[in-house]
Amino acid sequence: EHHMAPKITVIGTGYLGATHAAAMAELGFEVLGLDVVPEKIELLSSGRVPMYEPGLEDLLRRHVAGIDGATGRLRFTTSYEEVADFGDVHFVCVNTPQKHGEYACDMSYVDSAVESLAPLLRRPALVVGKSTVPVGSAARLAARLLELAPAGEAAELAWNPEFLREGFAVQDTLHPDRIVVGVTSKQAEKQLREVYASPIGEGSPFVVTDFPTAELVKTSANSFLATKISFINAMAEVCEAADGDVVKLAEAIGHDERIGKKFLRAGIGFGGGCLPKDIRAFMARAGELGADQALTFLREVDSINMRRRGHMVELAREAVGGSFLGKRVAVLGAAFKPDSDDVRDSPALNVAGQIHLQGAQVTVYDPKGMENARALFPTLGYAPSALDAARGAHAVLHLTEWREFRDLDPQEVGAVVDERRILDGRNALDPQVWREADWTYRAL
Ligand code: UGA
C-alpha cells in the first residue's frame, strides 16, 4: 500500500498560523494557508510577513510557491473551498482576543473558522484546534463539526495547543518543548504523530490526552508563567521597602533547581496578546464552571502586574521633581517585549501613555514597534532613534529591554539629555556603567 504524507492547511495567518504554516512546509509537507484578509494573503504569497518575527521571513521564502529557489510547498489562499479540497489535516490558528470590557475571550473567529470549513468537508479530514480557548470549547466544536460536515464522522476534531513565544516562534515551532494533543480516537493520534514525526524523533515529548486536559494545559501553563512574574514583582515591592535587591534575590533563589532562574525578571510586568488575556479568560471560565475559588489567586497576579505600571509612573514623577508638567520624558521601548513589534497590552506604552496624560512631553523610540505604537497611541511623540528620543529629556525611561538599549553609550546619551537621570523598568541595564558616566540610575 502506498502511503501519502498528509496535506496540511493552516487557517489564520497571524503569529501562530504564519509560523506554523512555514514550519510545516520546512518539515516537508505540502501546505495551504488561509486568511480572510486578502492583503495578508498577498503579502505572504510574495514571501513577506506582516509582523516582525526573527527568522520567519527567511523560512517563508524557502517554501512559498513562485519565489525563486523556493520548494513551492507553501501556498496561500482566501478560499475555504480550496482549503477543504486540499487538506487532510486542517490547523485552526485564529486568535481569541479578550472581549471588550469583559474578562472572557472572544471565540467568534474560532467558531467562524469551523463553521466556514465544516460544511465543505466531503472527505476524511482532521480539524486541529491550536488557538487558546476556554476549556469545553473543543467538545462544543466537535459536536458542531459532526453536525455540519457532509463527511460525517470521517471529519474529526483534535486539540493541539501551541506554546510558542513571540520572538522565538520559528525555533519553538520546529523544536517544541513538548507536543500536547487532545484526541478522541486512535486514528487522530496516529495522524498527529505523523505530522509531528520530526520533532518527536528529536526527542520532543508527545503528550496524548483528552480535550479538556489539552485545553487546560495551555491556560495553566500561561497562568503559571504569569504567576512567576508577579511573584518576583511582589518580592520587588518588598525589596524596595526593605532596601533589598530583587535582581540578586532572583538569582539566588533561582539556584534552587526546583525554582529555576527563568521568568523571574522583575520589572514593569507582563503584557502582550497572551498572558494578560489568558489569565482573565481562565478566571471567567472557571467562574462559569463553578470553580472560581480555585483561581482567585490569579486576580492577585493580575493586580500585582498592573500595579507595576503605576509604580513606574510614580517613580518617574518623583524623579522629575514631583510633577510632569513642562517635563520631557524619553521612553525607550514600545513593544511588550524585545525582539517583537507587538504592542498589544504593552506595559511600556501603557506607562508612556499615563505619563503623557499627566502632562509630560513624551517621546518614544522602539527598534521595531514604532509603526504599531503610533497606530495605537497616536498622541505620543516618536523619534527615529534612542538618541533622538533622549534629546532634551529630564528623565529617560528604559521600558523594553532591547539589546540596542544595553549597548547605548551613557556618555553619548548624556550629551543630549537635559538631565542625566535614567529609570530602568526592566532591571536590564548595568547600573555601574551608567553611574560611572554621572547618571542617576534607578531601577524598579
Ligand atoms: C507567552 C508564553 O511564554 C508562550 O509559551 C505562549 O505560547 C504564548 O504566551 C501564547 O500564549 O501564545 P509571549 O506572549 O510571546 O509568550 O511572551 P513571553 O516571553 O511569555 O513574555 C510575556 C511578558 O512577560 C512580556 O511582557 C515580558 O516582558 C514579561 N516577562 C517575562 C517579565 O516581565 N519577566 C520575565 O521574567 C519574563
From TrEMBL:
Key word Ligase present: no
Residues at the catalytic site: C274 (nucleophile)
Keywords: NAD, Oxidoreductase
Alphabetized SMART domains for the sequence: UDPG_MGDP_dh_C
GO MF terms, alphabetically ordered: NAD binding; UDP-glucose 6-dehydrogenase activity
Pathway info: Nucleotide-sugar biosynthesis; UDP-alpha-D-glucuronate biosynthesis; UDP-alpha-D-glucuronate from UDP-alpha-D-glucose: step 1/1
Residue ranges annotated for the UDP-glucose/GDP-mannose dehydrogenase C-terminal domain, each copy included: 330-431
Entry's Gene Ontology BP terms: polysaccharide biosynthetic process; UDP-glucuronate biosynthetic process
Sites where the protein binds substrate: F163, L164, R165, E166, K218, F263, L264, R265, A266, G267, G271, K337
Signal peptide as annotated in the record: none
Record-linked InterPro entries: 6-PGluconate_DH-like_C_sf, NAD(P)-bd_dom_sf, UDP-Glc/GDP-Man, UDP-Glc/GDP-Man_DH_C, UDP-Glc/GDP-Man_DH_C_sf, UDP-Glc/GDP-Man_DH_dimer, UDP-Glc/GDP-Man_DH_N, UDPglc_DH_bac
Annotated catalysed reactions: UDP-alpha-D-glucose + 2 NAD(+) + H2O = UDP-alpha-D-glucuronate + 2 NADH + 3 H(+)
Chain sites annotated for binding NAD(+): D35, K40, T96, T132, E166, K277, R344
Recorded superkingdom: Bacteria
Xref: Pfam families: UDPG_MGDP_dh, UDPG_MGDP_dh_C, UDPG_MGDP_dh_N
Keyword Transferase carried by entry: no
Enzyme Commission code: 1.1.1.22
Stated family: Belongs to the UDP-glucose/GDP-mannose dehydrogenase family.
Stated name of the protein: UDP-glucose 6-dehydrogenase
Source organism of the structure: Streptomyces zagrosensis
Source taxonomy: Bacteria, Bacillati, Actinomycetota, Actinomycetes, Kitasatosporales
